[in-house]
Each structure stands twice: as structure tokens, then as C-alpha cells.
């Protein structure tokens, strides 16, 4: 009896300690490249991003067909804290201001993410031949689905899978540098000044992920 209680107590302690070790960390300021691919193999977008981890601001700019054969040319400026974003089209000089319904994005671990596991890809036996990551998972809000995010020990998100009923995506971050190289990219361009907040049509969900659907 005592042994069982003691064992249970130890197990609880172990689990608690285990959980304490895995609080979602928050990422750094970053500049880099991001690619988005559907799990059917279609390359949706490749572009550059700038992320301010303090102000929770993101700029993502992609380019149709450059450098890969991609289908989406996007220019997005997202303010996750405020829950709004701008869709910018410098070609036709238009800018739309919209409300974000879902604040998930592949540059930081959501606060309510659940720790899944630690994994090393490649070989941890030789330096620089293996990459150790923590996997975090959680469900999507507003649509049925879930995500699985791989984050380095230093809290840099490497890749994120989004699974929904209809499609699945793989987002990958590459050539990341731990600084904001061009702070102007996170400033609302004059093109967008004074734009009214557009109504979200019934049944529409706006999020970073939805821009690629
Ligand atoms: C991240 O960028 C923001 C905005 O430029 C800046 O205020 C903040 O100090 C930066 N944080 C770090 C850790 O460099
Ligand atoms: C598209 O990509 C090419 C090559 O990387 C670059 O030279 C060009 O400026 C980009 N265009 C836009 C609109 O970003
Ligand atoms: C580019 O993608 C389109 C649509 O996915 C496809 O029809 C076309 O053949 C591709 N072009 C090249 C050069 O791969
Ligand atoms: C600008 O172009 C986009 C797509 O290329 C289109 O959705 C939008 O309505 C256009 N805006 C204006 C003001 O023409």
C-alpha cells in the first residue's frame, strides 16, 4: 500500500517536473525565408519574412514563380497582438485591412501548445550532423484540424504541419538570421494609411494559414 502511494507520488513528481521542462518558449526576432507546400506536393509560396517576436509583427512577401514554380504572390503585414493584418498589392497599388480570426502562425509556439516529444533528425553523434527539436502540437481554432510544430532547442521554429479536413500544409523556415534586418518592413506602408477595416463575410476565416488555402 505504502509502496503504491510512494510510487504514485514519485510518478506525479516526475510528470510535473517533466511538464515544467516544457513550457512553450518564445522565439527571437528573425529574418529569413519561408516555403509553403501542400502535402500533395504543390509548392504554394516561397518568400522572405521578418518577424518581431516582441511586438508580434510579421511581414511575408512572396513572389509568383520565383525562385520555384509557386502559385502565390503575397505581401502580408500581420499584427498578431492587435488581431489585424494588411494585404498589400503594390502592383495595382491596393491595400486591404482585415481582422484576424485565428492568430496561429509558423514563427512562434502558441501559448496553449502541448509538448509532444523531442526528436533528433540525422545523427546526434557528430556535431552539425543532427538537429534536435521539440515537437509541439495543438488544435486549430475556427476550423477543424491540428498543427505539429518542430522547434530547435534554442526556440527557433523549423517546420510546421497544418492538417485540416480538406488540405494539409508544410511550412518551413530557412536561412534564418536572429535580427530584424529591415525594420521598415514592419511599418504600415503609406499605401495602407487610413484604410477602413473590411467586414469579414459570414463563414470566412482570416488567418496566416488561410492566405495559402
Ligand atoms: C526585436 O525587435 C523589436 C522591434 O524592432 C525591438 O524592440 C526588440 O528590442 C527586439 N528584441 C531583441 C531581443 O532584439
Ligand atoms: C521576385 O523575385 C525575383 C528574384 O528573386 C526578384 O528579383 C524580384 O524583385 C521579386 N519581385 C518582387 C515583386 O518581389
Ligand atoms: C508550374 O506549375 C504549374 C501548375 O502547378 C504547372 O502546370 C507547370 O507545368 C509548372 N511549370 C514548371 C516549369 O514546372
Ligand atoms: C488588385 O489585385 C488583386 C488581385 O491581383 C485584386 O484582388 C484586387 O481587387 C485588386 N484591387 C484593385 C483596387 O484593383
From TrEMBL:
GO terms for molecular function: calcium ion binding. Keywords: Signal. InterPro entries: Ependymin (IPR001299). It comes from the Eukaryota. One of its GO terms (cellular component) is extracellular region. Belongs to the ependymin family. This is Ependymin. It comes from Crenichthys baileyi (White River springfish).
Amino acid at each position: 500500500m505504502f509502496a503504491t502511494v510512494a510510487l504514485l507520488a514519485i510518478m506525479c513528481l516526475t510528470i510535473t517536473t517533466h511538464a515544467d521542462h516544457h513550457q512553450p518558449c518564445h522565439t527571437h526576432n528573425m529574418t529569413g525565408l519561408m516555403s509553403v507546400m501542400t502535402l500533395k506536393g504543390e509548392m504554394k509560396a516561397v518568400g522572405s519574412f521578418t518577424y518581431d517576436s516582441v511586438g508580434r509583427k510579421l511581414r511575408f512577401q512572396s513572389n509568383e514563380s520565383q525562385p520555384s514554380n509557386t502559385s502565390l504572390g503575397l505581401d502580408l503585414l500581420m499584427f498578431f497582438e492587435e488581431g489585424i493584418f494588411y494585404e498589400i498589392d503594390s502592383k495595382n497599388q491596393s491595400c486591404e485591412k482585415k481582422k484576424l480570426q485565428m492568430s496561429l502562425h509558423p514563427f512562434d509556439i502558441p501559448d496553449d501548445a502541448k509538448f509532444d516529444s523531442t526528436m533528433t533528425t540525422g545523427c546526434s553523434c557528430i556535431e552539425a550532423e543532427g538537429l534536435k527539436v521539440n515537437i509541439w502540437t495543438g488544435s486549430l481554432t475556427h476550423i477543424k484540424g491540428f498543427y505539429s510544430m518542430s522547434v530547435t532547442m534554442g526556440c527557433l521554429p523549423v517546420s510546421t504541419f497544418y492538417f485540416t479536413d480538406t488540405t494539409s500544409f508544410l511550412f518551413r523556415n530557412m536561412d534564418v538570421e536572429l535580427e530584424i534586418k529591415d525594420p521598415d518592413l514592419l511599418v504600415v506602408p503609406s499605401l495602407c494609411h487610413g484604410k477602413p477595416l473590411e467586414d469579414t463575410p459570414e463563414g470566412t476565416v482570416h488567418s496566416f494559414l488561410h492566405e495559402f488555402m
